[in-house]
Amino acid sequence: MFDNKQIAVVIPCHNEELLLSKVIDTLPAFVDRVYIIDDYSTDNTQNVALECCNNDKEKLTYIRHEVNQGVGGAIATGYKEALKENIDVTVVMAGDGQMDPSDLIPIIEPIVDDTADYTKGNRLFSGDAWNIIPRVRYIGNSLLSLLTKIASGYWHVADSQSGYTAISLKTLRTIDWDKMYKRYGQPNDLLVKLNIYNFRVKDVPIKPIYGIGEKSGIKPLRMIPKLSWLLFKLFIHRMVQKYVIRDFHPLVFFYLLAFLLLPIGTIFGSYLFMYRIMIGPIEETSALFASLFIITGMQFLLFAMWFDMESNKDLK
Question: Are residues 160 and 33 in the same domain?
Fold first, then answer.
């Protein structure tokens, strides 16, 4: 226990035979329960996990998916196990050794102190992150984090794709884990759901760890188009749920006008540009109208974002 609070760690893993035992062995002694969720590994992960469980049957629980569900599905399975046992604080640590156990206390302290409902590790906070994290992953995570700020309303969360998190029991009980996005977009989906319920989310600086033998099949830059569409749908869902159904806010009108005027101005402006290049001079008033649509649309968009930031400024 930590400060009279039960602590559980969910370890989602898929083909993590190399580092799983190290992750388990280096967990702090105050961790009460460990849920190892094997998401249909095809290597020796199962045997490694079972051996660890045999060494500490009271603390460790092993669960295997017979069908690969994705990291989000594995996390949801672990969360539901923690919910059954009414664990006060549940942490997620990957089985690839990229999450430093020494960061566990800073991750759980805001939950234990009741200053946050959900905490998220921020690997980008350190100035050394650019030199430690592979460039492609750094750029991909930064772009996805920017889009997630807009979609989720948590403008202060800088590393949306970080999987090193902690969640309170109250929050655990509120979210429907059967409806959680099951793959790489799980942290983005969860942030949107947390914002709809006005849960407090805190960014916690952590040390990025790479080059220790971990394996990753995720290509962040390739995931951006797919996740961008997911984030757009999540953004619309949040606008409807939070600012129309639960409590009306005029910022929805600003976003609607921005989404109407910006495409019109961009398409009209592009048409005029091509006309000028390929055919000849255009009317000055036409160019003026295109500029007006674009400028006005940008103003509506920026005001909508500002209203959203003000509305969510206490959720950190």
Answer: yes
